[in-house]
Amino acid sequence: MSRIQVFALGFVSALVLVLALRGLGGTTPAASGLLIPALAPQQPNGEPAPGMFLVATRDLMDPWFGQSVVLLLDHDDGGSLGLIVNRRFQATLSDAMPELEQPEAAMHPVFFGGPLGSHQVFMLLRNDKPLPQTQHIAADVYFSAEREVLDHALQNKTPGSELHFYIGYASWTSGQLAHELARGSWHLVSANTEVVFGDGAEDLWQQLIDKLEPPGIEVRFEAADQLLAALPDSAQEPSGLTRGRP
After folding, report:
1. Which of 25-29, 197-201, 218-222 has the lowest mean pLDDT?
2. For a tag site, which of 93, 135, 191, 210 has the least CB within 10 Å?
3. Bridge partners of 141?
């Protein structure tokens, strides 16, 4: 698959963006019974692919990507593209693009898609059939950055369960994502795209990470080592293996 070309849909003023970023800490009540993806660790060949989730590990303290879930849009030898799908702005599409005349624009929230292209708006759409001027991602999910697609979606009153808007995107150069995966910054999991469009997507990282990295109760390494040393020989680890530490 060729790299997805990035097109501008509208200019987001610095004031609107700053105000929206300040609202990222706000919360929206999560819907009960949020569907959680089946956590297949990764593809058999271990390679990222469009439609998969990158789930930030607990140790990833990056100010942009900490506690984020990224839907991969594209991945090849040239690099990778994705959208953060769990960070909702306290702003609507009409705030980001005040020139829009359709009243439906005020009904759609916008999400922080990533630190690049902060003056651009991108879309994820759900449809049973291929859509013109869109890029198929996985299952019934399509990506677009075309103004005609945006106008058509608003004119047809496409609901939020089938249409999401994102300001900015995430990108990795050739080999960069592989390095971050090897370093342990991300979990690579099969995605259930239902959660991308569901209510309560803001809670997706917490629910995923609790399955990928059960929180438990931490103890000091010294205490854990003493406990292990006290185990009977039959319960010790097999010879040749060492107990790893995070």
Report:
1. 25-29
2. 210
3. 126, 138
- Whether residue 90 is predicted with pLDDT greater than 80 in this model: the reply is yes
Give yes or no for residue 23 having a pLDDT over 80.
Answer: no
pLDDT in tens, 211-221: 999 887 766 66
Quickly count: other Cβ atoms within 10 Å of residue 20's Cβ: 22
pLDDT of residue 192: 83
pTM of the shown model? 0.76
User: What is the residue whose two structure tokens read 């009540």?
Assistant: 29
Give the largest CA-CA distance in the chain.
74
